[in-house]
Structure to design on (462 residues):
């Protein structure tokens, strides 16, 4: 393979795999209304989303590390198989318990991105790695849009069971593509014994913290069961850190986070997750709030979802652009550029959010910058991480994003509740509450830009 040639067959296979992962994440959103009508419990149905996210976050670093050790292609094929099996379980379900079990198993597909990024670094010439990772991020954008559109069509014309059949077929197609077009990965297992406990503690610790963040509102933040989950999760994570630091060969090595480029990217990504990645929560409420609130536009849930679609489609170009800028101008330049674009979009919302066309244009700007940040951070981390731990460290980035997205969702909910308007029994955030929330998101976005300035200079770290 020459230094200037892109292996498009490999890229296409990994692109389809990442699309399958994003499709599984998004397609359930199209069926939530129907599922609530069938099971009569919105909070219960919400666990179909929450369970998927928690499993994906907790497993990302561990599955990524297993790919580093035993071959990323092999582990990717196993993950796609589990995704297909989980989809078929949900498709055949006649009870909520069975549906949730299949959905939780599907959550493992959230670990596909770290494996794909590791395979990109493993198989592409060094100068093509940033563009390759950018294409993986664009695959996620396409998969999300496909999940929302195809999921809606299937639910409207067939049944909610059909979205899981489609998801299983997507995983099967990706499995065939990876099996045929991706070279076998070398195993990274060395003769030195692996400290498995230092990794196995990590997953349950993160799971308990995420359970608190995502379920604490329903249980009561200060209730004994909720606080018990949080404290147990923190204790396990602290124990993991101590074991990892003492171990010569830990399964998940916390010391990699001490690398300057990796630490800065994780810090900036945490701020992005708390702020601009709350885009769906913020705009879903803004677009659907009644017009009598003055701030709201009174759209239906379907039309509000369609308003987000143009930004999903235009973001397909943002991933490759972020990778290209990283390769040409360095990671710091690309991260700062993406952060400034994102901040600009939120500032425009603060200035004017009076009509659907204006908000669609602002969503395009925000999503474009956010997707650039999504592409650039893994590119920098993949270049800075030890080759034998690439997927593990990229998986850790996913865990950090999930944790701080949970924190950010509670922050946004709290800020939107600082002031409200009421009409009969209906209560919604006031225009002032939206402005306060926008101010916080803008501050977090600018904070991510400021943190990104601490990255090394022009060249991507080796």
């Amino acid at each position: 393979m020459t230094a200037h040639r892109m292996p498009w067959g490999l890229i296409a296979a990994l692109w389809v795999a990442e699309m399958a992962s994003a499709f599984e994440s998004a397609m359930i959103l199209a069926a939530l209304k129907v599922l609530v009508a069938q099971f009569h419990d919105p909070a219960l149905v919400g666990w179909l989303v929450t369970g998927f996210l928690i499993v994906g976050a907790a497993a990302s670093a561990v599955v990524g590390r297993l790919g580093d050790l035993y071959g990323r292609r092999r582990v990717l094929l196993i993950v796609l198989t589990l995704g297909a099996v989980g989809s078929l379980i949900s498709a055949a379900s006649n009870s909520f318990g069975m549906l949730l079990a299949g959905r939780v198993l599907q959550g493992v597909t959230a670990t596909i991105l770290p494996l794909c990024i590791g395979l990109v670094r493993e198989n592409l010439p060094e100068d093509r790695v940033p563009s390759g990772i950018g294409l993986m991020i664009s695959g996620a954008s396409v998969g999300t849009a496909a999940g929302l559109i195809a999921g809606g069509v299937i639910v409207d014309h067939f049944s909610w069971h059909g979205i899981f059949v489609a998801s299983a077929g997507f995983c099967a197609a990706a499995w065939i593509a990876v099996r045929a077009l991706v070279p076998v990965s070398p195993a990274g297992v060395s003769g030195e014994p692996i400290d498995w406990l230092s990794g196995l503690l990590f997953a349950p610790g993160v799971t308990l913290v995420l359970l608190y963040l995502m379920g604490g509102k329903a249980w009561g933040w200060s209730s004994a069961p909720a606080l018990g989950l949080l404290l147990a999760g923190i204790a396990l994570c602290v124990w993991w850190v101590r074991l990892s630091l003492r171990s010569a060969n830990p399964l998940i090595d916390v010391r990699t986070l001490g690398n300057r480029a990796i630490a800065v990217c994780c810090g900036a990504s945490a701020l992005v997750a708390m702020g601009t990645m709350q885009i769906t929560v913020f705009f879903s409420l803004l677009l659907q709030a009644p017009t009598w609130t003055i701030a709201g536009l009174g759209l239906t849930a379907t039309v509000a979802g369609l308003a987000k679609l143009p930004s999903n489609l235009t973001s397909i170009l943002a991933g490759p652009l972020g990778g290209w800028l990283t390769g040409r101008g360095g990671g710091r330049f690309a991260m700062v550029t993406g952060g400034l674009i994102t901040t600009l979009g939120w500032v425009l919302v603060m200035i004017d959010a009076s009509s659907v066309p204006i908000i669609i244009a602002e969503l395009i700007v925000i999503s474009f910058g956010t997707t650039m940040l999504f592409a650039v951070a893994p590119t920098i981390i993949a270049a800075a991480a030890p080759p034998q731990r690439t997927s593990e460290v990229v998986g850790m980035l996913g865990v950090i994003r999930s944790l701080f997205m949970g924190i950010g969702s509670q922050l946004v909910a709290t800020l939107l509740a600082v002031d409200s308007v009421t009409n009969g029994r209906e209560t919604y955030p006031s225009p002032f509450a939206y402005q306060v929330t926008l101010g916080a998101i803008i501050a977090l976005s600018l904070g991510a830009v400021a943190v990104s300035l601490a990255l090394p200079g022009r060249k991507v770290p080796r």
